[in-house]
Amino acid sequence: MPAFDHGALRDELAGNAASLSDNAIAPALVAAALGQGESVLTADGALSVRTGAFTGRSPKDKFIVRDALTEDKVWWDNSGALSPAAFDRLLGDVREHLAGQALFRQDLLAGADPRHQYDVTVLTPSAWHALFIRNLLIRRGEAVPASPDADPVTILHAPHFKADPARHGSRTETLIALDMSRNLVVIAGTLYAGEIKKSVFSLFNFHAPARNVLPMHCSANLGPDGEAALFFGLSGTGKTTLSNDPARPLIGDDEHGWSEDGVFNLEGGCYAKTVKLSATAEPEIHAATRRFGTVLENVILDANSLPAFDDVTLTENTRAAYPIHVLPSIARGSVGGTPKSVVFLTADAFGVLPPLARLTPEQAVYHFLSGYTAKVAGTERGITEPQATFSACFGAPFMPLHPVVYGQMLAERLHRSGAQAWLLNTGWTGGGYGVGKRIDIASTRRLLTAALDGALDHADMRFDPLFGFEVPLSVPGVDDSLLDPRRTWADPDAYDAQATRLVELFRNNFNKFGPDADPRAGPRLQMAAE
Questions:
Q1: Which residue numbers are catalytic?
Q2: Residues contributing to the annotated binding site for ATP
Q3: 409-458 tens-digit pLDDT
Q4: What is the CATH number of domain 339-447+460-513?
Q5: Fold of 6-38+57-211
Q6: For residue 171, which of 190, 193, 194, 191 has the smallest C-alpha distance?
Q7: pTM
Q8: Whole-number Å distance between alpha carbons of 530 and 526
Q9: What φ, ψ does residue 232 adopt, rounded to 5°?
Q10: Binding site residues for Mn(2+), as ranges?
């Protein structure tokens, strides 16, 4: 396929617009969003917006064009397929839909390493979506150098366009369509801004392995010697909270690449969950929600126009989008050295997993491919007891290739780097949700610090007979009983039954990758040393 002319498409859309706001900065976008009735200001000056019927992503409405490039690469069991003809009809119809509208254009970068960078242009009729993506991607002329060879990506954002399943090959009137061959994205029928951000990530995740870069849905920060620590985890496990540490400069909070030279952030901002946000427990994030230009999604405002973070009337998936530079401690250039530590976060609502465990490389890959956490009763309709959630690579909806491709890359990097992997449970102890209690964040931070600073390198450990990992017997400042979850249960036999059940859930989930693997040893992937 000949190279696609992104410049011509961008110029056509700009030329056919009723008006064009070209790379407007935050004050102009805030003014436009207010003028168009898209939003209101909080008392602190943040922009408060609603996303309508969609308060989260629509993974079942995400489709990849099935063509010669993607046919034998994409994990189609996990991705909807769209024909090239259907995508072209969608592209043509959305171009016609956007013609004559006032558009906002943002030319941004994705990838803090210029050798692995994308030149991203987003065109949208929504001022607040333009501000959102300006906050989230890398703004030209700031701390990250721009590469003249960056691959172009064009995103057409048409939140009020309704897809036609018969004409466009969609499932509903909502459609997130990605053409990997031409690096084109069309988003239709949803106001949820996370679709824009995750479309860029999905494109990166498809192309990166071919360039020997491991794409990762994780946060990352830096230790005192410039070595990186990675934090993988699904929503609600503490990924953003725990990586925001004044003593450890933040590389990024969500999307990264691991190249031969180290770790780099794909983005230039943060998209933090704000449900029950605390100024005491998460001061840096809380402060960011009070700044001018931050976008607050679906956050209820009180009578004084201040965010009521405990109010989940609209959704528990309330968010704040802000540039990374507003945080007090960030890594220069949004890059870091080779990781020394890899932390897998889980919020185990069954009350089974210890708060901290040391993993072998094989076990690390197993937990990476499993991507486990648990939903708790009351978070969704119909959930009356904890439910295990497994998302391969801690981000299956954004990983177009088979998870084993990414797992193999992680295995090789763990071997070459010697990075130590840990499992950190931020969930429940003393029983499952409804019986036990959530592990307090102060203890979690002490455990994490001990793991990252090497205090546990030679510590006494016990062997867990069910999962096979090692668990420290003692950590300064942490109650010893907390480290052995069985001891925290009033009924040890009930713990044993729940633990056996969780192990079986892990095994059943892993069957989809092929032959079952023992969680005590990990999957049988070819390691670089063999």
A1: 57, 198, 217, 235, 239-240, 254, 319
A2: 198, 217, 233-241, 282, 319, 438-439, 444
A3: 999 999 999 999 999 999 999 999 989 999 999 999 999 999 999 999 99
A4: 3.90.228.20
A5: Phosphoenolpyruvate Carboxykinase; domain 1 (3.40.449)
A6: 190
A7: 0.93
A8: 7
A9: -95, 145
A10: 198, 217, 254
